[in-house]
Design a protein that fits this description.
The complex is a heterotetramer, with 2 copies of chain A (about 375 residues) and 2 copies of chain B (about 350 residues).
Chain A (H helix, E strand, L loop, with lengths): L8 H14 L11 H16 L18 H13 L8 H14 L2 H12 L5 E3 L16 E5 L2 E12 L6 E7 L10 E7 L5 E6 L8 E12 L3 E2 L5 H13 L6 H18 L5 H26 L8 H23 L8 H10 L8 H12 L8
Parallel strand pairs in A: 1-4
Antiparallel strand pairs in A: 2-3, 3-7, 4-5, 5-8, 6-7
Helix pairs in contact in A: 1-3, 3-7, 4-5, 4-6, 6-9, 7-8, 7-9, 8-9, 9-10, 9-11
Chain B lengths: L6 H16 L2 H9 L4 H12 L18 H13 L6 H14 L6 H10 L4 E4 L25 E6 L2 E12 L6 E13 L1 H39 L1 E2 L2 E2 L4 H26 L6 H27 L10 H13 L4 H13 L2
Parallel strand pairs in B: 1-2
Antiparallel strand pairs in B: 2-3, 3-4, 5-6
Helix pairs in contact in B: 1-4, 4-7, 4-8, 5-6, 5-7, 7-8, 7-9, 7-10, 8-9, 9-10, 9-11
């Protein structure tokens, strides 16, 4: 057991140096508004140019085949430098792992490079008005037609879909099948004929999501991921990933905890030990999350349902860390600014990617082995 | 000893509830947030007609007060309906003006205008005068001063006229926060500092009452949603996790209310300051907890701008630290109890 | 709305003066050990002599028909004076309200005066090894015989039964009936033939409970409370009471919060705002509980299931208040002493009289109107 | 970089688990609590035979260490089995003696004795030397000194021989807390203060590891109980409230462990003190939370002296504040990070 990171020191140095010399001079506008979305897309292209947009991918798709440990290091440096949020995150973190597992070589070659470069930004289209936590109750349909499928129905809470290019998600392809069966996983351009998108304002008004309405939208067979009818299995390969480290890398929280420490130094009365304790806790938890990440990449077995433990931890850490910042800001805490934007973003954490209530059920039943409730 | 609202006080609350339900406050808030103050100011006048703005103005100055129990009853409903506008600030200004009495040339004119709903007032208190050190970070904002007829600034022991400067946006869209541009000194000296402390206490009390109302509404809508929303083939309100969240929200609010009432009843006693601080601590924590539970029960829809409950969720967070954070008020409670 | 307590000022003054002149010079030994039990019994007799043991009861049974408000005032003075814990509490708080509602005049005349004087100390015998929170699954039986009933089976967690004189509780009198039906509520002397009692050590070793084994214990008809078979209804009249204010009067927490404040003044660094905030919270919550008590006695309607709200509040307040004290004591917090005894006592609060999980269900379903889960 | 236990380290833990399971530690604890030290001392010797007591003793002094990763592996199992005895104190004494080296006449003799399990040591630290102000209340106790062969007292920069005085009872019956009677000065000066700081850090690390083990065991028995215990016609583990309690306990423990391992790995680096403090905060909070959850899941039976899990429940509370409260360790983390 060690934390000897000397083998990744050259890579760390390269990333740090590149960021030092390439970081935008001023912070980009929020990626949840149109102007910021465009600026963040340009930044993705710049990252891609240095082969830093998707470091863990194979080289043929724009990556550099970085090890999981190198990926952790990249993320530490990226957030420590205060680099922009990743507008491509839904594609990179949610679609790409699914494609690596279930995609055809043709799909990989077609989809991944433009995702890596930011040329195509992807939005996840999973939830429906009646199917949030209960994903198996999806009702939007894919109907078999010659050479492909016709999509109908509605998706909602599609993150970044207000400005993104393509979407992906499961649709009910067998109307007779119940719940987890009879779903098919598809990709589609968001400007396809028959798609109407309606941006939805987040709690701070920024259009971070959209509703999507499908009216006989044609999707060719080549845009089905995995077997038709096997959409649940395909979707689950994404959620396993989403609940692990990828969605919220430790680097993000380390950087946020360091910024919180700066804010505390700047704003707080050092005699206020109540706030001091909360700052200490945020830092300790960020360190715990970092070390857990090192533990995870040291393991060779599948972490499986244990990923739910991570989801609860990072989402709650994110909220309390930002609450501490707002409390440090006192009466300025309610004013628009970076900390408030981070707070608003954090509030979604306990809800999406499976609510924390669902995650606690998963931990209890699949990690601790408690009995499922009778239905 | 009868520590519950009497029939008349309950009727007053019900009347306000009826007026505010009919007023469709969410649309008033959205207008107010965009700077369209007219519907909000019309509502101000309707509420003034029921006497809400006269409650902090003494009878001698043309008001009906001070009636702190009626005041917290009214602010509970203002919170339940998330009414936009500088109600708390106006009440604080009324207290300030009343305390300064003849020291201010136009004091009685303004007080009368407040009681009648003709004068919408706001106030900036760069440091909250009643709270002990460590001081809050400076907050040179006067809520909704751009919609007010009278804007004051208390800076140490100086009272100044002021004007609205640049408006900053709050997480709560109904709260517009202009910085203030200081004008003439209207009064100065220890009487200003004393009056500002009294004004601050009244502002804290009104905010605590409002918070309990905000929390109540969030609990009401969350219970309704939990009964209606189906997931996994059943209403989510059947799940124990949801039930226990909502039960916890209720427990917090049920114990914040008596502290608010207890503070109102101790108006005029030496314990008033301690008691409003205790009420603010409990009300802030209970309303904010209710907001987080409401968000969790609603899921993504509660996180959207366009769905009404988010107006209350955001207000709970903003009021959590407005008029002094829970930590500042805890410090004051201990200071009052232990003399440290 | 007012908090004008001048009408009860003379009563308060009388109680305060009596306590000032009669309080034991040194604290009594713990009432959970034999020596302390006897000392506390003697103290009950002294209280009774001044008609202060059961102030709210009618005069004929040893009380002084005090109003609920006077009872609150009595409790405030009693605990503020640091007076001994009430060894008769199970009888006074749990059995007496049941008797007032369901007892015969003969039972009231026979049972209450000796309860008020401490001559007979009562123990509650409700729980069984298989029936804790799920009281309806009771299995100990009462079998009809000539002139009375024969008790068989086992009860457990009977508070104070190690040294008490009589017990009371529900037994299954109709073996065919299910769950809430077919129970009968009875009283019995703990030294009756056929009863074996085994003291159980609490978490600090003190025998605060006992197990009771019943082997053909005869109970005459006159010791049945309410109708045979209606034991559930009779029991519920106790639990309604237990969850309200009676079991833990506000005076107790006000006094504990004041002692905590003293401890803080004595032990804490005033600059440690983290501990200061916890002390403030304990005091604020004790005040809230007191004011809620005044609110409750001002109401004329039945508080019903709202009593569950109180149970959660006082039991959680009791734990956090004592945790704060232990933290103030630092390394001395683990040592035997009054604060540790109070902490140990507080830990039982979230468990007994219906666990707090059950209380939350009650609040959700009966106060908020959420649907019961399908069975 | 391989931040998990290697095969040999895992095997070491499993071996200890096996020895301790066979030892029936609850009966050993009950004997120890009553002053019957023999079974506990026999277990001490068995553990010494596996090398547990040699881990903090350097090879040069006849030990196998310092091996901090193996040390936390061992203390995790000591916690999981609630083994009674001054293991932590002995490890701290070993560190102290090692740091003082030749300054102590009998230092190397004692170190060798500790490594071989012949010398059971204890230590009183009236103030925890590594922790910043505000200082902890004085704690002039030396755990289980009445069963120890060597009792030391560090008072400021003086190291003294000491003897066990009156024994005070702890909430944890396995922890006997004698006050100490100070004897001869064995060493004095800045080197004593420095050695005491190092000893304190090692004691904190061992306690943190033990706490995670205590919490783990509490979670294990609670899960088993929740599967078996029926109420309302079903195992209580089917109820969402119980599930979520237990899931929360797991989350806390799963994130305390890497901090303990991370601190062990940073032994010898300038961050060691900060890292052991971070580990102690998380381990104290996670184990104590697990204890409260275990009590709630078990209900009344968990509250009884005779039922074994209560031994762990009580230990979690005692260790929560032993070797420095979470607040004291938070202060030290911030002090290390921010230099205040």
């Amino acid at each position: 057991m060690d934390l000897d990171l000397s083998s990744v020191a050259p890579f760390r140095a390269e990333v740090r140096e590149w960021l030092r010399t390439h970081l935008p001079a001023a912070p980009l506008p929020s990626l949840e508004i149109e102007e910021g979305f465009a600026a963040h897309r340009a930044w993705e292209r710049e990252l891609y140019g240095a082969r830093l947009s998707v470091v863990s991918w194979p080289e043929e798709y724009g990556g550099r085949a970085a090890t999981p440990l190198e990926w952790l290091v990249f993320e530490e440096e990226y957030y420590a430098a205060g680099a922009p949020g990743r507008v491509s995150q839904n594609g990179i973190n949610l679609l790409a792992p699914t494609l690596f597992q279930h995609g055809t070589p043709e799909q990989l070659a077609r989809v991944l490079p433009s995702m890596a470069s930011g040329e195509v930004i992807w939005a996840q289209a999973w939830s429906e008005p009646g199917a949030g936590s209960d994903l198996a109750s999806l009702r939007a349909t894919a109907t078999r037609v010659d050479g492909g499928w016709l999509l109908n129905g509605q998706k909602t809470w599609s993150s970044r879909a207000a400005f993104a290019d393509w979407g992906f998600g499961p649709f009910r392809s067998d109307p007779e099948a119940q719940r987890h069966r009879g779903l098919t996983y598809l990709m589609f351009p968001l400007d396809a004929e028959g798609i109407t998108r309606r941006p939805i304002g987040r709690i701070d008004g920024k259009p971070a999501f959209a509703e999507l309405f499908f009216d006989d939208v044609f999707v060719p067979d080549r845009d089905v991921i995995g077997e038709p009818g096997a959409g649940w299995k395909v979707a689950m390969s994404t959620t396993g990933n989403e609940r692990g480290l990828t969605l919220r890398s430790p680097g993000r929280f380390l950087a946020a905890a360091d910024r919180l420490l700066d804010l505390w130094r700047e704003r707080a009365d050092p005699a206020d030990t109540a706030l001091r304790d909360r700052v200490a806790d945020a830092w300790i938890k960020a360190r715990a999350y970092r070390l857990k990440g090192y533990e995870t990449v040291s393991r060779t077995d599948d972490i499986g349902a244990e990923s739910s433990i991570n989801k609860i931890f990072w989402s709650e850490l994110d909220v309390t860390l930002h609450e501490t910042a707002l409390d440090l800001l006192g009466p300025d805490g309610e004013l628009e600014g970076d900390w408030l934007e981070g707070y608003v973003f954090s509030l979604a954490g306990p809800i999406y990617a499976g609510t924390n209530e669902i995650q606690r059920n998963v931990i209890a039943e699949r990690v601790l082995g408690l009995p499922r409730a009778g239905r | 000893m009868k520590f519950i609202l009497d029939a008349e006080q309950r009727l007053f609350g019900e009347t306000l509830d009826k007026i505010l339900t009919e007023a469709d406050t969410p649309s008033v808030i959205r207008g107010w947030a965009a700077g369209a103050h007219q519907p909000g100011l019309a509502l101000w006048r309707s509420l003034a007609a029921t006497g809400v703005l006269a409650l902090a103005v003494p009878e001698s100055a043309g008001g009906a007060g001070p009636l702190p129990v009626e005041l917290v009853t009214a602010f509970h409903e203002l919170g339940r309906h998330a009414v936009p506008g500088p109600y708390t600030e106006t009440v604080a200004v009324a207290t300030l003006l009343h305390r300064l009495g003849d020291e201010l040339e136009r004091g009685s004119e303004w007080l009368e205008g407040i009681a009648e709903g003709r004068v919408v007032a706001s106030l900036a208190l760069p440091a909250l005068p009643a709270l002990p050190a460590p001081p809050q970070a400076a907050a040179p904002y006067a809520l909704d001063a751009d919609a007010a007829d009278l804007v004051l600034l208390v800076d140490g022991d100086e009272l100044r006229a002021a004007a609205a400067g640049e408006v900053r946006a709050s997480l709560d869209p109904a709260r517009r926060l202009p910085s203030v541009v200081a004008g003439d000194v209207l009064a100065a000296g220890p009487s200003v500092a004393a009056a500002a402390r009294a004004a601050c206490d009244m502002g804290v009390l009104a905010t605590a009452a409002q918070l309990v109302g905000v929390g109540r509404r969030l609990l009401e809508v969350s219970v309704d949603y939990a009964k209606a929303r189906q997931q996994f083939g059943r209403p989510i309100g059947e799940f124990q996790a949801v039930k226990h969240h909502l039960a916890d929200a209720l427990v917090g609010l049920e114990y914040a209310r008596p502290l608010v009432h207890g503070a109102a009843v101790s108006y005029g006693s030496p314990d008033f300051g301690r008691d409003v601080s205790a009420a603010k601590v409990a009300a802030s924590e209970a309303a904010y907890a209710a907001a987080k539970i409401a968000l969790q029960v609603h899921g993504a829809i509660g996180y959207t701008d366009e769905y009404d409950p988010s107006l209350w969720i955001r207000k709970a967070r903003a009021l959590h630290s407005a008029w002094g954070s829970p930590a500042a008020h805890r410090a004051r409670v201990i200071s009052a109890l232990a003399g440290v």
